Amino acid sequence: MIRNYIKTAFRAFTNNKAYSFLNIFGLAIGIACATLIFLWVEGEVNFDSVNAKKDRLYICRENEKYDSYVLTHSSTPGVMGPAIKAELPGVANVCRTSEDPASLLFSVGNKSVFVSGKYAEASIFSMFTLPFVQGNATSAFAQLRSLVITEKTAKKFFSDYKNVVGKSIRVGNKTDYIISGVIKDLPSNSTLQFEWLMPFKLFYDNSPWLWKWSNYSLSTYVELKPGVNPETINKQLYNYIQRREPTAIGHTFLFSMNDWHLRDSFKDGKMTGGGQIEYIRLFTIIAWIILFIACINFMNLATARSEKRAREVGVRKVLGAEKKSLILQFIAESMFMAFMAAVAAVIIVLLALPAFNTLVRKQLTIGLNNPYHILGLLVITVTCGLIAGSYPSLYLSSFNPIAVLKGLKLKSSGASFVRKGLVVVQFSVSIILIICTVIVYQQIQHVKSRELGFNKNNLIEMNLQGQMSANFNAIKQDLINTGYVENVALSDHAIIYGGNNTNGMAWDGKPPGSTVLISQRYVTPEFFETSGLRVLEGRNLAVTDTGRPIRMLVTKSIEKLMGKGSAVGKTMHYEGDTTKATIVGVVNDYVYGNMYNKPDPVMFFITPPKNAAVMYVRTKEQKDIEKTLTAIQAVMKKDNPAYPFDYRFVDEQFNQMFLSEMLVSKLSRVFAALAILISCLGLFGLAAYTAERRNKEIGIRKVLGASVSSVTALLSKDFLQLVVLSCLVAFPIAYWTMFSWLKGYQYHIKIQWEVFIIAGIAGILIALATISFQSIKAALANPVKSLRSE
Amino acid sequence: MIKITELQKYYRTEEVETIALNKLSIDVKEGEFVAIMGPSGCGKSTLLNILGLLDDPDGGSYLFNGIEVADFNERKRADLRKHNIGFVFQSFNLIDELTVFENVELPLIYTGVPASERVARVEKVLDKMQIMHRRNHYPQQLSGGQQQRVAVARAVVNNPKLILADEPTGNLDSSNGNEVMELLTDLNEQGTTIIMVTHSEHDARYSHRIIRLLDGQTVMENIMI
Question: Which of A200, A561, A609, B71 fits a disulfide with A121 by CB distance 3.0 to 4.6 angstroms?
């Protein structure tokens, strides 16, 4: 029986090549899209899965309550880790590491390269899965000046990279470190990323501020013992810091490694359930929608050409086929199509994967030797086959054999209604995707073009290395002398990211109990002009402001916090400290950290060059960038010869902050285009069948004097009505979806009605272009032929 | 073999009710060859559909081999049909996607005959219908007469007790028509009961008995000598 079904299906497939092509191609694109999305989802869901103890690993986080919000961050007191390991019985192990990766200059022989890494306690090797390819975890940090590097780093410096343990690397042009181990490169889907590890003691012993409970500057990782409930530990951690430092406002809790990548979104100190998982959910839904759209094509084309299959159904019924066996037959046919489509989809995925990997910045592989991938593909294919074959099988198997064998016209109003409904679903989805794509793009552009308060363009950032601090004035003058540079400044933090902040500032008139988080930046006087910040009131900081009394600049939002009138002349002080700092000027607010949020308050103090960390170079706008960089490099080589020229463009850093959103934008564009393509394939097929079915009507109309344009309009009208209906369905859904999405951003666009009109017109034009070929072809056909064939 | 008593069938639209069969009673004995004739709309095809268990009567009784089948559900009807009844249509109704062999094999598949046995039975019947040399051809590659032979082969491959033929020569020229009628006569002589709807007096003369219908009722029965 099954053989007979397959045989019939195969011959029906070969006898109707155009129909088969439309079905298989549409379904193949659908399955390929879904496969690509699911590969990406797999990569995201398996983030950090390289760690065998993933389920028991946590990072300590802090919730700090301020006047209007709760800040959640991962900075912890340096002394907390050993304390909780000693005191909390459920804790198996603890590892402290430096927070942000440090970029240090590594030199071997003549080769010097900046390499990024962390200071970590030796427990990192037992808590995280970091396989050693040379050396071992036990002896890795036995010596203080030891260094564990990745294979990639070993290859960078040594030709004999398979045998580097015991060799030395000079760090920062000062100290030699002995390589004690080489570990495998960390996979891209690991949150923990570094190219080297050094003993934490090196960092800790030289940073006395870390020894206080009131300073939050480290990452603390915790491994729980098997079976320990993290909530039990969280209860013990809640006031853990307060018991040692009563003024602290941070409440510690454990954040599971399972959630680091997927659910890292907090509001009011609690996980929102959002984060990357939202995009995973979104694209999983999109994958199934695209598959459903492709299945709709099959359903529509199958029922549209039901008249061609009706006689066969009649004959089979007369010969004893039960409805059940006919349903099975048609399901088998759709399964056959789905499997053909799956094969084509695999080919499409193999061809598209390199481009897709570039798009999503991953190294995904189709992995056909992975049984889970085969199972996944099988599930997708069978699901498609079942969905696509469901309605046609029920519809076709319900034909009355008497009617169909007599050749009576089938009463297809029910099927036609369903078919039209499915076309509306297809185009509604397509129009929703168009609208969402446009609005997501608009939102990203809106944020990217927002007034930041400083000028991110033509601004170069460099880490201060070697003699750069000491030679700052000479470097600055030399750079200006090149003619390519306008100004040069120093700061203790990158302008675009967050930095140190404090909740301990007080001023006259501050409401009692009020807690405000204020960022603090230490800069040289040139910083404001170089960055593009404007001094609105008072004066700039001066080099002479380093002594007492302390002088500071504040942003406009601090001035507002301090009450009416100018802030210039007012003073601020740390709570519990009588030393006052006088405000000498007010600068405009500027956006840093989260580009979607309102600007947070910042206060600026003067710093001597030796305490700064980064240098900013404002280049002249009209100058050629290549020549400018060459000129800057020449100066750096002269004034800081021991270090390679290492720089970043601030506008590129800015763009990096939108990677997730850009990815969503690009993916939604790609998948919207593919959803539209699949919908159009279906519409093309339907238009062809409609033209064929109305062949006689068209012939009679033409004989009676109808023009080509009127016949074309007649055939196009029905479809266009469906697209218009699709717009009416799509608009409110798209509005609601985008309204909800935009609500998540403090700084967002207003949804414009023009987007809906444009999407609607685009939908109509795309549909018109799709059906016009068939409509015009039918309208141009010789009526004699169609009437004679009747 | 067949006994229908006061069989009724109505066709209703929103405005009109048409009586297709009006308390029709007919007996057909096993081994008989009966022709049913009458003008268009007299109920011939409706009667054939009900006899073939393709349609339900609205009233009356239908005994097939002594079993009341008028109230059978679809599954039971399909089961009885595939084991006992063969159909021959005016327009052949072969499946275009299947070869001659596969078309004839189809009823055996539905009755669950094992594949090895199917080949022998299909070849035997194709041989009998003198169409064996066309076994791998598709219907579109055959003449009308050949297609009807295949249709007859398909109707008899399951050795049905009853063959229902709906104007089996309606689409054939006289020569091919006669051949088909000879085939049906042969089958009847081998014991198969045949009920044939026809407009052709010529074809009807092959039968043992002609039942003439008008407005859903029997108006005359002719016994052929």
Answer: A200
